[in-house]
Design goal:
The complex is a heterodimer of chains A (728) and B (152). In chain A, the strands form eight sheets. Chain A has a seven-stranded mixed beta sheet with strand order 11-12-9-19-16-17-18, with helices on both faces. A five-stranded mixed beta sheet of chain A has the order 1-2-3-4-5. Helix content of chain A is 28%, strand content 24%. By secondary structure, chain A is of the alpha+beta class. Chain A folds into three domains: 201 residues, 2-Layer Sandwich (Aldehyde Oxidoreductase, domain 4); 158 residues, Aldehyde Oxidoreductase, domain 4; 337 residues, Aldehyde oxidase/xanthine dehydrogenase, molybdopterin binding domain (Aldehyde Oxidoreductase, domain 4, 2-Layer Sandwich). Chain A is globular, with a radius of gyration of 27 Å. Chain A contains 19 helices and 30 strands. The N and C termini of chain B lie far apart (45 Å). Chain B has a five-stranded mixed beta sheet, with helices on both faces. In chain B, 58% of the residues are buried. Chain B folds into two domains: 70 residues, Roll (Ubiquitin-like (UB roll)), CATH 3.10.20; 74 residues, [2Fe-2S]-binding domain (DNA polymerase, domain 1, Orthogonal Bundle), CATH 1.10.150.120. The model of chain B has no long low-confidence stretch (mean pLDDT 97). In chain B, strand 1 and strand 2 form a beta hairpin. The chains are: A alpha+beta (728), B alpha+beta (152). Chains A and B meet through helix 5, helix 7 and helix 18 of A and helix 1, helix 2, helix 3, helix 4 and helix 5 of B.
Chain lengths: 728, 152
C-alpha cells in the first residue's frame, strides 16, 4: 500500500485550509521515519504533509514548520518542487496551524530538514509520475515517451501540456508505488542558492508577524509580572492605571505552575498598546517574592565554581586520569565562567487569543504550535479540536518562542474579559522574565607528556539544567547536557567527565545551540591553551589532538566522523590562509565543533588595538551533509557569527535579590553594523544525510575570538562577556 | 484631533498628544510595517521618515509629527523602492522583523549620499539592531542599489 495518497476528493481537505478542486496529495511522514505499517484503511490515515496543484497551475505547499529567519518555508518547499519538476514561480506556501496531523512541528533543534527531507522528495516524485500518467492517457501514448520539465509534461513528438491542464485527469489516478527519485546531479533547486519565498513581504512591510495581527474589537494587554521568578501578587492598586486614557480594565491572573505555564501577574487591558504599557507602569503592586529572592548571580557563580573545584558526579571515566596526571611532564588547568543569556528576539513574545465558549483561536509567533495547543486546551479544559493555533511569522525565535507561556497568558486574559486580546511583552518584560540560557562554571585539567602529547583530560562543569524547568528540584545536568563534553573527539586515552551541583533559581531554557555554547567554548579555548603549552601551532596541534580518521562511539544513529571534523577545520584554515603574516595587532584564532550532527569550524581574524578588540574576518566551513538551500545555510552561518559575537562581547544576564538586573538593549547589548565583520562561508559538498544548520554555527565564534586575542596580547580570557574585561 | 500625513494621505486621529508616533501608526491608523522592538529608541525597528529625516517613532510624541510628512515602509520614495529590490535580490532578510527599520535608515542615507562608503553605512545604520545578523548583506544591498542607480 502506498503511504502517499490522492485525497483530492476527501472532505477533510477543507480542514487543512486548502480549497477543494485541485490535485491534492498527502502523506504521513512518520511512515517513512518510523517504518510503521501503512494503514489499509484510509480512515486511519493521518497525513501530515500536503501538496496541492490547481488547474491554473498554481502549486500550494503546506509548511508545517515555523519561519523565524531559518528559511524553512523555502527549503521545505524547494525539495518537493525539485522532484516534481515544478516551476518555482508557481509555488506558494501556506502555513499549517498547530495540529498533530502535521506530525512533529516543533521548529527547534535544527531538525526540520533532517526529519522531512526524504519524505518530501518522494512526495514530489510521485506527483510527477501522476502528471506524466495523466498526460500519457490524454494523448494515448506510452508514459515512457513523456517527460516532465518546468511545470509541463512533454511528449517526444514535442507536444506538451501544462501541469494545470493535467489536474482533472491526475485527480482520478492512484499514486504509483513505482517511482524513481532524481539523480542528485539533476537537481534544479536542491543544493542551489534559492531566494526566500517570503523576502518580498519582509522588504515591503506586509509580512504579518504575531505583533501585527489585528481582529475587530481586539483589546491590547500588558502584564506586570513579579521581578522574582515564581513570586506572586500580594496586593495591587489599580487606581492610577485606570486614570490613563485608553485603559479599560485591570485584572489579576494567577501563576500556572507548569513548565510552559503563565507566570501570573497584574494585567492592564486597554484600547491600544501604548495605554496598556503606561497603565502597567502606573500600577502599584506588592509581591510575595518567594524562595527565589535569594538568587544573586555573583554569589551563585562563586558557589558553582567551588563545586567544580571538587569532585563531582562521574559521568565518563576512561583509562586512568589520575595516573596520567601523576606521570605528566606538564599540567594545565583552567576555570571558565559564563553568565546567563537571553534570547532577545527582535519581536518580543506576544499572542492574540479569542476564547468563545468552549472554543479558542490563537494567532501567535510560535516555534511549537502543538505545544501551545496542548497548553491552551489543558488550561481551558476543552478538547484539542476546539483550539486552533495559527502560526504567524516569527520576528526571531532562537528557542524562546518554543515555550508558549505567552500564549497561555493571552488565552487567560481573553477568557477573563470575554473578548479578543493581544498580550504584548515590553522589551523589559522579555529581558526580565525569560527562559534563560544556563550559567556555568567549568574546570578543566590536562596532562602533557614530554613530546607535548595530551595524556589525560578532566572536564568538570556545573550548570543549572534545562530539566529543572520541567522537574523542579533537578540540580545536576541531564544526560543530553553532558554529551557535548563527553563526546569530545580527542584522541586521549585517559578521560574523565564530572558534573557538579547547580540548583536553578530562574526558568532555564534552550537558546540557539544550547549546551554547545558553554562546552564549545571551554573545550576550544582549553585545547588552544594546550597547543601553546606544547609549543605547537594551534592548527597542527588540534588536528593531531583529534587524531586519526574514525567513527566515534556515540549512541546516535547519525555517526560522528572525525575525518569530517578535521576536514572543516582544514577548509576554514585554508580559506583564511592560516599562518600568513597579518597586520600589526592582528591575529587568527580557530575553533571547531560538532553539534546537531553538523561539523563547523571558524577561523577568525581579530585585532586588539589600544586594548579594544575588533573582529575583521570570519572564515567558516560547515559540513551539514546534503544541502537543500545553499542560501539558507550561508545566511545561517553569517547570522550565527553575529549571534556568537554578541554573546562573546556583551551577553550577560545577572540577578540581584532574585530580580534580573538588565532592562533593554542599552544594558543587554547586541553587535551592530559597525562591528560586523566579513563572514566567508564554505559549505562542504556532501551526499550524506542532511543535518542541522540553524544552530551549529554559533558555538565556535566566542572561543575562536578568545584564541585570537591570546595570540595578539598573550592574555587568556576564560570568562565572558569580553565587555567585562574592558575589551569592547 | 491630530492630523497626520502618512505616505501622502491624511489621517485624523483622536489620541493623547504624548502617544508615541509608533503606536498611533500601528494601533490607531493600522499600518503594521513599522515595528515595536524596544520602546526606548535603542533598536531602530520603528524608524520612519519625518519630513525627510529618519526618526525612531517610539520616541516622537504624535503631537510633534503634526502636519509633517511621514513615510513608512509601506510608503513610496524613490530610494526606498530601489533598496527594497536589492534587499530581495540579495536575500537580505532572515526573520525580517527589523528590516522595515533598516530600509528606512538606508533610504535616509541614500537620500543624502549618492555613493556611501562602508564607513558612511556604518554611521547611518548604527542605530538599527538585527538579531539575526544580516548586517553584511544589508551593507552589500546598499552598495548594490547605488550600483544599479549608476547604471540606469
Amino acid at each position: 500500500m502506498n503511504p502517499i495518497k490522492n485525497i483530492s476528493r476527501r472532505s477533510f481537505v477543507r480542514s487543512i485550509g486548502l480549497a477543494s478542486g485541485g490535485l491534492i496529495l498527502a502523506c504521513n511522514t512518520s511512515i517513512f521515519s518510523d517504518k510503521e505499517k501503512v494503514p489499509e484503511n484510509l480512515i486511519d490515515f493521518n497525513p501530515n504533509l500536503f501538496v496541492q496543484l490547481n488547474s491554473d497551475g498554481s502549486l500550494i505547499l503546506i509548511a508545517s514548520r515555523s519561519e523565524m529567519g531559518n528559511g524553512v518555508r523555502t527549503s521545505l518547499t524547494s525539495v518537493i518542487a525539485d522532484e516534481m519538476e515544478a516551476d518555482w514561480d508557481m509555488v506558494t506556501v501556506k502555513q499549517g496551524t498547530g495540529d498533530k496531523k502535521y506530525g512533529d512541528q516543533n521548529t527547534d533543534g535544527s531538525r526540520s530538514i533532517r526529519y522531512l527531507y526524504e519524505t518530501m522528495r518522494q512526495m514530489g516524485a510521485i506527483a510527477k509520475v501522476m502528471l506524466i500518467s495523466a498526460a500519457a492517457q490524454t494523448w494515448q501514448v506510452s508514459e515512457e515517451e513523456c517527460m516532465a520539465e518546468n511545470h509541463f509534461v512533454i511528449h517526444s513528438s514535442g507536444k506538451k501540456l501544462g501541469y494545470g491542464d493535467l489536474v482533472e485527469k491526475a485527480k482520478t489516478l492512484e499514486p504509483p508505488t513505482d517511482f524513481k527519485l532524481k539523480n542528485p546531479k539533476d537537481f534544479k533547486y536542491i543544493g542551489k542558492h534559492l531566494k526566500g519565498v517570503d523576502v518580498k513581504e519582509y522588504a515591503n512591510g506586509s509580512a504579518v508577524f504575531g505583533l501585527d495581527k489585528r481582529l475587530p474589537n481586539m483589546k491590547y494587554a500588558a502584564i506586570e509580572r513579579c521581578p522574582v521568578t515564581f513570586g506572586t501578587v500580594k496586593f495591587f492598586d489599580k487606581i492610577e492605571a485606570l486614570k490613563i486614557p485608553g485603559v479599560e480594565n485591570v485584572i489579576e491572573i494567577p501563576r500556572i505552575a507548569k513548565p510552559f505555564g503563565a507566570l501570573g501577574g497584574v494585567v492592564v487591558i486597554a484600547s491600544n498598546t501604548w495605554a496598556a504599557f503606561k497603565g502597567k507602569e502606573a500600577l502599584k503592586v506588592e509581591w510575595d517574592f518567594g524562595e527565589n529572592k535569594v538568587y544573586d548571580s555573583e554569589k551563585y557563580m562563586n558557589m558553582i565554581t567551588k563545586n567544580v573545584h571538587k569532585q563531582g558526579k562521574v559521568s565518563k571515566d576512561t583509562g586512568n586520569v589520575n595516573r596520567a596526571f601523576k606521570n605528566a611532564s606538564k599540567i594545565v588547568e583552567s576555570t571558565f565562567q559564563l553568565p546567563h543569556l537571553s534570547h532577545a528576539p527582535m519581536e518580543t513574545p506576544n499572542a492574540v487569543a479569542w476564547v468563545q465558549g468552549d472554543t479558542c483561536e490563537v494567532w501567535a509567533p510560535t516555534q511549537d504550535p502543538q505545544s501551545a495547543r496542548k497548553e491552551v486546551s489543558n488550561y481551558l479544559e476543552t478538547d484539542r479540536e476546539n483550539v486552533t493555533i495559527n502560526v504567524t511569522f516569527l520576528g526571531g525565535g532562537f528557542g524562546r518562542k518554543s515555550k508558549p507561556d505567552y500564549v497561555v497568558e493571552a488565552v487567560m486574559v481573553s477568557k477573563a474579559i470575554n473578548a479578543p486580546v493581544q498580550v504584548v511583552w515590553t522589551r523589559e518584560d522579555d529581558i526580565k522574565h525569560g527562559y534563560y540560557h544556563t550559567t556555568s562554571a567549568q574546570y578543566m585539567k590536562a596532562s602533557l607528556d614530554s613530546n607535548g602529547k595530551v595524556t589525560g583530560w578532566l572536564h568538570r562543569f556545573a550548570l543549572p539544567s534545562i530539566m529543572s524547568t520541567f522537574s523542579p528540584g533537578v540540580d545536576y545536568a541531564a544526560g543530553w547536557e553532558i554529551g557535548s563534553a563527553s563526546n569530545v573527539p580527542f584522541d586521549i586515552k585517559n578521560m574523565k567527565i564530572e558534573v557538579g551541583q547547580a540548583p536553578a533559581h530562574v526558568r532555564i531554557g534552550w537558546l540557539r545551540s544550547v549546551i554547545n555554547i558553554p562546552h564549545g567554548f571551554s573545550i576550544n579555548v582549553f585545547a588552544d591553551e594546550l597547543a601553546y603549552a606544547a609549543k605547537k601551532d594551534p592548527l597542527e596541534f588540534r588536528l593531531n589532538l583529534i587524531g586519526n580518521d574514525r567513527i566515534e562511539d556515540t549512541q546516535d544513529e547519525i555517526k560522528y566522523n572525525t575525518a569530517r571534523l578535521k576536514n572543516v577545520l582544514k577548509i576554514a584554515a585554508k580559506n583564511a590562509d592560516w599562518g600568513k603574516q597579518l597586520p600589526e595587532g592582528h591575529a587568527y584564532g580557530l575553533a571547531v565543533h560538532y553539534s546537531f550532527y553538523s561539523y563547523v569550524a571558524s577561523v577568525i581574524e581579530v585585532s586588539v588595538i589600544n586594548e579594544k578588540v575588533k573582529v575583521h574576518n570570519i572564515f567558516t566551513a560547515i559540513d551539514c551533509g546534503t544541502v537543500v538551500n545553499k542560501n539558507t545555510v550561508t545566511s545561517q552561518m553569517e547570522g550565527a557569527a553575529i549571534f556568537g559575537m554578541s554573546l562573546a562581547y556583551y551577553g550577560k544576564i545577572t540577578a540581584k535579590d532574585g530580580a534580573i538586573e538588565q532592562n533593554n538593549y542599552n544594558d543587554y547589548k547586541m553587535v551592530r553594523m559597525h562591528q560586523s565583520p566579513n563572514v566567508h562561508v564554505e559549505i562542504v559538498e556532501s551526499t550524506e544525510r542532511p543535518t542541522g544548520v540553524g544552530e551549529p554555527g554559533v558555538p565556535v565564534i566566542a572561543p575562536a575570538i578568545v584564541n585570537a586575542i591570546f595570540k595578539v596580547t598573550g592574555k587568556r580570557y576564560h570568562n565572558l562577556p569580553l565587555m567585562d574585561q574592558g575589551l569592547v | 484631533m491630530i492630523t497626520l500625513r502618512i505616505n501622502g494621505e491624511k489621517h485624523s486621529i483622536d489620541v493623547a498628544p504624548d502617544m508615541p508616533l509608533l503606536w498611533a501608526i500601528r494601533d490607531i491608523i493600522g499600518f503594521t510595517g513599522t515595528k515595536y522592538g524596544c520602546g526606548k529608541g535603542l533598536c531602530g525597528s520603528c524608524k520612519v521618515m519625518l519630513d525627510g529625516s529618519p526618526v525612531q517613532s517610539c520616541m516622537i510624541p504624535v503631537s510633534a509629527a503634526k502636519n509633517k510628512s511621514i513615510i513608512t515602509i509601506e510608503g513610496e520614495s524613490k530610494n526606498l523602492q530601489l533598496l527594497q529590490e536589492s534587499w530581495v535580490e540579495l536575500n537580505v532578510p532572515q526573520c525580517g522583523f527589523c528590516q522595515p527599520g533598516q530600509l528606512i535608515a538606508a533610504t535616509a542615507l541614500l537620500d543624502k549620499n549618492d555613493n556611501p562608503t562602508d564607513e558612511d553605512i556604518n554611521k547611518a545604520m548604527i542605530g538599527n539592531i538585527c538579531r539575526c545578523g544580516t548586517y553584511q548583506r544589508i551593507k552589500k544591498a546598499i552598495h548594490r542599489t547605488v550600483e544599479l542607480k549608476n547604471q540606469s
